[in-house]
Amino acid sequence: MTTPYPTGSVPPPGCPAHRLYGPEADADPRGLYEKLRAEYGAVAPVLVPGDLPAWLVLGHRENLDVARTPSRFSRDPRRWRDMQEGKVPADHPLTPVAAWQPVCNFQDGTEHERLRGAVTEALERFDRRGIRRYVTRFAGQLIDRFVEAGRADLVRDFAEPLPMLVMTQLVGMPDSYGPRLVEAARDMIKGTETAVTSNAYVTEALEQLVARKRVVPGRDFTSWLLESSTTLTDAEIIEHLRLVLIAAFETTANLIANTLRMVLTDRRFRANLSGGHMTLPDALEQVLWDEPPLTTILGRWATGDTELGGHRIKAGDMLLLGLAAGNVDPEIRPDLTVPVHGNRSHLAFSGGPHECPGQDIGRAIADTGIDVLLSRVPDLELAVPEGELRVSASLMSRHLVSLPVVFTPKGRTVTASSPVPAQVPVQVPAPAQVPMQVPPAPAAPAAVPPAAAGHRRRARPSWWARLLGRG
Asked: Potential cystine with 325: which of 18, 33, 182, 375 (Cβ 3.0-4.6 Å)?
């Protein structure tokens, strides 16, 4: 691999820009991307944790080239030369996301088609209206937990728990698993000291789920994977359930949080939304361009010596898809202030044969959840100066740490027979203690109480209401 410094060495003092980790990368990844773009063009040599060499793909066209040509850039990490040479030990920070697993996104060719076919076949069986009913139900329950207080942290209290609560229903788990899975998923992604324990919790929960669904199937993703004509093994089913849960959680939670932050803080958004020139789906797509839920995707591995963006890529080199960098490529977006309404050619969900198969479900969760929130609490205001909002960054994503808001306290609305559990035990219950059943059909959202409805009619329509077409 060609790098601007001797092979096997680290960047010289004063040149930390080549690292995709560390203080500078975490503090201002976009600034780092532009620095690399100015120096190297559409593809840049970088270092990932452990100072392992890689290529960051910065150009929009080059990202699509890599994503769409698995014959040149494989998704199978077993091709990674550094891993073959023993430079990626079991305790390496990248091992959890780079070690080969029996899932479709680590396969190419016919095996990829077999595994992905089972996933997409199961996902396509969902009724989109049914998904939105689940979202409405859980969003209402979450809002009920803070609506009387007049303040909330929309990351902790809404954006993070909502996707996992919905996904537990879609895979056929009891409601009580949702809150603990949110905690475990975030812990795994952060790679904390308890990440191994959290991973064990998720694994045991999924093993129990598959065992139960073999006996009592339902209309859910797990049962449909078990019915798949491709005959998946239990290990393959468990790994795909984990993949879907974690991917849906991280990406959708970030999408919800980023959209709420932008409509609360970005004057351009506020003006467009209040003026009726942008719908909520438009706002979501704009956020997918400007703040994609994943900043990079690890990774692709060169199947042979090749060229990309004017650089020589060696067989076994690792490449990172730069989703955030590609979305702001000056070649396709010379003016970032120009709205991109209706344009879905962003890289937020990658592309090619490994493009995210659940993106429409993620959009439905975010769109419906934010709709419910803004309808119930139309006078949201940021509780702290925008400059005090903190973002946590990692190699693959940036997420808002908190989004504190204030609003006029309101009454609760009964949204379902059983509220979201405030706490759940850390230990996974034994199979006999928690019978998994087919989830009941979600209740339709209850009407707004007369007093609240009357108050809303007397109030001046907010820009939130005009956004949702209710002004």
From this structure: 33
DSSP structure string for 391-436: EEE-SS-EEES--EEE----------SSPPPS---SSPPPGGGS--
* HSE-up of residue 136 (Cα within 13 Å, Cβ side): 17
Q: What are phi and psi of 455, to 5 degrees?
A: -60, -40
> Quick one: which H or E segment has residue 381?
strand 381-382
Candidates 304, 326, 167, 317; CA nearest to 248 is: 167
Instruction: List, in sequence order, the alpha helices (H) in 81-127.
Output: 81-84, 95-98, 109-123
Residue 40 CB contacts under 8 Å (≥ 6 apart), including other chains? 58, 309, 311
pLDDT exceeds cutoff 80 at 278? no
Is 356 or 55 the better-scoring residue by pLDDT?
A: 55
Which pLDDT score, from 0 to 100, does residue 443 have? 35
Establish how many alpha carbons lie within 13 A of residue 110's alpha carbon, considering only the half-sphere containing its beta carbon: 1
User: What is the rounded CA–CA span in Å between residue 170 and residue 112?
Assistant: 23
Q: Which residue has the higher pLDDT, 86 or 460?
A: 86
The reported pLDDT for the residue numbered 394 is 81
pLDDT at 397 over 50: yes
Per mean pLDDT, which range of 37-51, 88-102, 140-154, 279-293 is the poorest? 88-102
Inform me whether the pLDDT recorded for 416 exceeds 80.
no
Nearest alpha carbon to residue 300 among 326, 315, 321: 321
Name every residue whose Cβ is closer than 8 Å to that of residue 373 and which is 6 or more positions away in sequence. 139, 143, 154, 158, 260, 380
What pLDDT does 315 receive? 97
Higher pLDDT, 139 or 422: 139
Strand partners, 302: 73
Instruction: Choose among 138, 134, 140, 135: nearest CA to 375.
Output: 140
CA 99 to chain centre: 20
From CA 349, how far away is CA 293, in angstroms rounded?
A: 9
Centre a 10 Å sphere on the Cβ of residue 424 and count the other Cβ atoms it contains.
18
Angle formed by the axes of helices 161-171 and 234-265, nearest 10°: 150
Task: Answer whether 0.90 is exceeded by the pTM.
Answer: no
Residue 461 has pLDDT above 50, yes or no: no
Round the CA-based radius of gyration of the chain to a whole number and report it: 23
- Sheet strands (E) in 294-360: 296-302, 306-308, 311-313, 318-322
At residue 148, what is the residue type? E
Distances (CA, A) of 332 to 123, 289, 327: 32, 12, 8
Cβ 236 vs Cβ 265: under 8 Å: no
- For 322, the 3-state DSSP assignment is strand
